[in-house]
């Protein structure tokens, strides 16, 4: 990507984006669009809908909020330890979409 951390002056706007409602709104929009696409498909017995777990289904926000929202250099050991605790919450809009997709007959 060309950078190891985000600039210090980007921390507050990043926090505002995440906690101020825009992140949730963007997540809702993306999930709605995925659902609108999926509901137009003819679902067969073996059709699946794939999600990327990390950052799409499970939120990394608690980890990054504890580690400067990207201003700290990424530490894969600390991140892996956090992931292995199994405390990452589901992203609310993705969870709603998951349930809707299952109701359409998709296997996840």
Automatic annotation (TrEMBL):
Signal peptide: none
Domain of life (superkingdom): Eukaryota
Matches recorded under Pfam families: Acid_phosphat_B
Protein's UniProt name: Vegetative storage protein
Organism name: Glycine curvata
């Amino acid at each position: 990507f060309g950078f190891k951390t985000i600039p210090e002056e980007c921390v507050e706007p990043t926090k505002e984006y995440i906690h101020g409602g825009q992140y949730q709104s963007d997540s809702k929009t993306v999930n709605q669009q995925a659902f609108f696409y999926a509901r137009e498909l003819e679902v067969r017995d073996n059709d699946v809908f794939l999600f990327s777990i990390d950052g799409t289904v499970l939120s990394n926000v608690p980890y990054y909020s504890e580690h400067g929202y990207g201003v700290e250099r990424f530490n894969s050991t600390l991140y892996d330890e956090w992931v292995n605790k199994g405390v990452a919450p589901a992203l609310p809009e993705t969870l709603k979409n998951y349930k809707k997709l299952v109701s359409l007959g998709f296997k996840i």
